[in-house]
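pinned: reference chain
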Amino acid sequence: MWTHRPLLPLRASPRKCYSVHLYSSTRGGKRQRKPPITAHYGLVMGINNSTPRRKELLKKMKNNSLENVRPSCPSRPSIFAEVETVKEQVEFDCFARFITDKDGEPRLDRNGNKMTRTDPIYEEICLIIAEVNLLNPDGVMKISGSELSTFIVQEVYSRLTFEHVETVVGKFQRVSTPIYNKKAYLRTALYNSVFEAQSDITNQIAQDFHGFFG
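pinned: its structure tokens
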């Protein structure tokens, strides 16, 4: 007649399982031990798992096995936290404008402070920059119809300043033709503004030099 006896493992294993040993009766009165049969959490061979102590043990073993198998997930960066970083980079507070009345005088709040307002396009530009900064640097993205490495675009965006953003907004407000993809336009304009800033300074110096010497 076959009998079984559950034994807890003497040392921890990655699978956290029970070992069930089988014994067979012999004529000489000795019992022959068979190779153990392992099963997850002891739910096999009619083992009683209804006792509170056994339930608590199985639950703990199951949780430990899940912690060992499940890989740790790195925390994802928040886009809104990145937006705050971008605002510091481009000096977002400098984009605020005073709210004036009909006479051109600045309006005051209840505390006597001058009321200010920031154009929503500056907030949108900061969000676009933050979105690009959080993209996978190994990917590609389109700028002016050409595919560029995301890493290169992120490096260029890291050079953006208050003057670059002001230049982009000024050109955007002067566009007379309809813009069907505003986000793509601003992405391209921000990228090109870093390269155009140096050429604009060079052209301005050349014009001043030519005007000075006539």
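why pinned: The radius of gyration is 35 Å. The longest helix spans residues 182-213.
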